[in-house]
Design brief:
Blueprint (H helix, E strand, L loop, with lengths): L1 H20 L7 H22 L9 H25 L1
Helix pairs in contact: 1-2, 1-3, 2-3
Length: about 80
């Protein structure tokens, strides 16, 4: 259970970092960006560990979470941005 809670906390940080790395106007604002960061961190962390790229408590997990968040943010901007335009 703490592993899941840990990924949510990391996701908050990663969501903010993803927003800093990808500046610009998001269709959903900062709260949606942070939620996407949490989901991206959970997804990226799960995929990385499932593929055996790293183990628990390794720094690579943070980078995989950041990558997952950035990818999810790009997909969100692409899909929602197209509908709004």
């Amino acid at each position: 259970m703490f592993g899941f809670l840990g990924w949510i906390i990391v996701g908050l940080v990663v969501g903010a970092l993803a927003k800093l790395i990808m500046p610009g106007k998001d269709p959903g604002g900062i709260f949606v960006t942070i939620i996407l960061g949490i989901v991206g961190a959970l997804l990226g962390g799960w995929i990385g560990r499932a593929l055996g790229l790293y183990g628990p408590d390794q720094p690579a997990g943070f980078f995989m979470a950041l990558l997952g968040s950035i990818i999810l943010l790009v997909v969100y901007r692409f899909t929602v941005g197209r509908r709004a335009a």
